[in-house]
Amino acid sequence: MKKQMKSIITVGVAALSAFIPTISSADNNNEHNLLGYSVAWKQTAAEYRALYYQGFNLAKMHLDKALMEYKKGDKPLAIVTDLDDTLVLPLEYWGKLIQNNKDFFEDPLWDEWIPTNGMIPSPGSKDFLEYAKRNNIDIFYVTSRNQGEPTWDLAKQNILAMGFPLKDDSHLTVLTDTSNKETRQNEILKDYNVVVFLGDNLNDFRRKYYIKGDVDGRIAKMEEDKDLFGSKYILFPNPTDGHWLAAIFGESEPEASQKNREVLLKAATKTAWQDK
Ligand SMILES: [Mg+2]
């Protein structure tokens, strides 16, 4: 399981427009795969990679400022970071999904793929982490994953395979039965001055953004904190998965069904020009 607990779909699908085409992942030529654009963007767009450099450059500026302002007796400095789609990119996994003619996230394939260490460091991540380490800034990895009993060991193995620094085991937290990172974040905040949080999901920053089945409500929560993005919160792009899907579907890993394909297209036409 990638992270989020399974839950019952709560989004109503009633009143779907008749113009929504019938689309199935079983299309022989895969040409209507709903994941196509998102995955192609992740695989190829220079803009996608540049956004990582942008995020880490920003984060480094905040580290430099915190280092300059640091006084003896202050709490030690730290960063708290997510793993998947923040420090590492699971591009192979998404490519395999498309190759397999799948258009929704697949837990079994994900769980099979994680032990291969096939992810790559996101652009700029390694330099940023090494810079933090060189300046004695503690790096706390907080991730939500569930591959059963070896979950924590697999996450550690991924971190080491990428060449990322890991100070000790207490600096890696893997949440297997919840995606709520706030308990661990609060523990860290007690003892450290967390300069920046890094993530691809608003849930990587605070739990308040975890809102199911309410797209506008989730956007409104984000708007409350607009000044924190780019300052305390460094956000990376992820158009394929995350809690933004829970706002649409009521759960983060919706099943591959015709009904959910229609829900996605309904979301994509949230606004549309009505030209008579
Ligand atoms: Mg992530």
TrEMBL record:
Residues 1-26 form the signal peptide. It comes from Vibrio zhanjiangensis. Keywords: Lipoprotein, Signal. It holds the Pfam family Acid_phosphat_B. This is 5'-nucleotidase, lipoprotein e(P4) family. The lineage of its organism: Bacteria, Pseudomonadati, Pseudomonadota, Gammaproteobacteria, Vibrionales. It comes from the Bacteria. InterPro entries: Acid_phosphat_B-like, HAD-like_sf, HAD_sf, Lipo_e_P4.
